[in-house]
Amino acid sequence: MGAAPIPRGARRAVAVSLLPGAALFATFFLVPLGVLLVTAFSRWGGLELAWTGLENYRRMLSDPVFFAALGNTLFYAAAAVAVQVPLGVAAGMVLALRPRGWEAFRTVIFVPFVISGAAYALVFSMFYNARAGLLNNALAALGLPGDRDWLFDTTTARWAVAGTFVFVVGFVMVLVMAEIAAIPDEVYEAAQIDGASSWRQAVHITLPLLRTVIGTVILIRLLVDIGMFDVVFILTAGGPDNATATLALYAYRAYLNGEWGYANAVGSTILVVGMVLIVAVRRLFRVGEGR
Amino acid sequence: MHDRGSSVLAGFAAALVILAGCGAGAESSSSDSGEVVITCATCQQSPTDPFLQYNYEAAQRFNERYAGTYRVETLENPNAGSSDDRLQYYQRLAMADDLPDLFQLNSGEIRALQETGRLHDFAPDLAADEEWAGTFHDHVFDALRGPDGQIWAIPQQRDAIGIFYNAELLERAGYDAFPPTWDEFEQLAARLRADGVTALALDGDWATMLMWVHLIGTGGGEDFLIDGITSADGWADDPAVVAATERLRSWHVDGYVNADAFSGEFQNAAAAYLSEQAATIANGPWFVKTNLTGDAASPGLYEKTGFAPAPGWSAGERGVIVVSGAGWVSGATDERALTAVREFVRFVSSQDEVLAQAAATGASPPVAVDPDAMAAAELEPLATGLAEEAAEVTHRYPHVRVHGPAGFGVAWRNLWPAYVDGSMPAAEFLDRLAADARAQAGG
Question: Which PANTHER family does this chain map to (chain B) (predicted)?
């Protein structure tokens, strides 16, 4: 079914009403995007702007730090999806059954999601503190070595950073609960008449019907995590030896160096990675195709 | 319809006015009364940074004294104190020809910003006023000069930096004075470790670099700290630098350093010293004001604390870091604004003001001060004691964080933990540090 045509007399009014939105969209999205894409092929530090073709991309592909940052970014995104989505879906499915105290559990699980990344990072910097942090003190109390600097040891830094956000499952849980609430009761009633157990209902009815929302949360998580900056910046600033650096942090360093064109080339790469992920996940989970 | 169109246009007009307002930055101006108003980007109030707070109070006194003639107007900004973003902030303003009339930078940042050609050269001002120029200590302008004799900043301070120590903890370990050599310092560290005390509080940034500099400077590496640090390579070829780097790493490996020595947060190191878990910490005289006399310090810690020059590699070869690489910079171009800027920098380098700054921050004056006035000011005895001792030590050298490439701190924080955990040898660490420090500085 197509949209109803706009009456001839109202077209001008509609066009005028769209102008502020279009102007804002152009100012805050199209123009920056255009600047990003053009200057990505330039040497730009503010004072000069010189077209350099693919030079920024050649340099990027020859810089091992770029690949370290790309690897870390994909690692964080994959870790978030691999841990948050199964845990979030499981929590959502359990709480959707309305067990005793489910509202309190829902609140407790959701609250970490609304805490800002910066505040979260500060809390975890204290948690991981090698001298006085909770983690090392707990390990020491158990008779285990309790003096490791988790965030600044090259063998543990990346895992320690990932550990700060992969268990924040509130967002996935809430979306899953909302989706389950929208499943008609008749479906479950029919299954019960056929003698299906709760487990079989969850596996054969609920889970398949969650396909779209699972695809959506995976998409959102991936897009959030490929632009990750604040948590890493506060916890480790990308160190030690770039073991935790992300693409966004790598671009930020280039920006600090006055290499704005190079920073934008990195930014355009993040854009491309994001678009590839969107297409892949949409196809895999058939997002937008309904149930 | 007409009304709706008017509303849209009015909305656009309002948006343009707002956008235009966003662009209004550091313009100096004259009021109707003829008062010259100059902007200052490092004169905002700060409850945590005593230097910024002093600047704010000095600007208020200046405004009071020159009411009706000159006035300093504060530009509130997040880069007023030292930060990794500060250089970029001023580079952006320089490109827009919108630098504040007054702000502060260290020498590494000044070297990077001079390339914009927007900084005021104070050399002619000093040449034209020999009496004023003569009040400054020797060599305080060394780190602030340009390649053609320009003087880009009026120094704010000239501090001797040594090592604070907890005399009570040292006494318990059998030392009634601070060790005069690095070997003895390590013997002390081993005894302290045996007693469960951390010998040295480090942070992976400022304080760690201070110890690196002390080890280099007292080991024959003064030339490196003055000149070599500004070159992009050859750091790993300097035996003093390699020896200092390896020795500092060994202190981590041997357990002489606090476990959280890589966070880049000075307060982590300070907490270890202030809670008496660590026996020593390197920092400048402002540490007294900012930490030692604060609520976080253990009761009575100030009375137990001494402030000594760095040990030497051999007896009698002790040293101090002398910091004079930060100062007042101006981006003013208008002659009326420059007149006000000149008056302001004369004002803050006057005897009364440098003593007020010393009392407020612990920083030592960049100008010679009458001894009677100095005594009357009753300055912090720990700081003045080291300043007097500094005149007698064998080695004096600048701090890399102030005198080195502007990107040195970022590069160090990234690479130092990896070097200490054995991910790379000293030569690779130094080569990469040199390269990254230059790259981070936009070089």
Answer: ARABINOSE-BINDING PROTEIN-RELATED (PTHR43649), DIACETYLCHITOBIOSE BINDING PROTEIN DASA (PTHR43649:SF12)
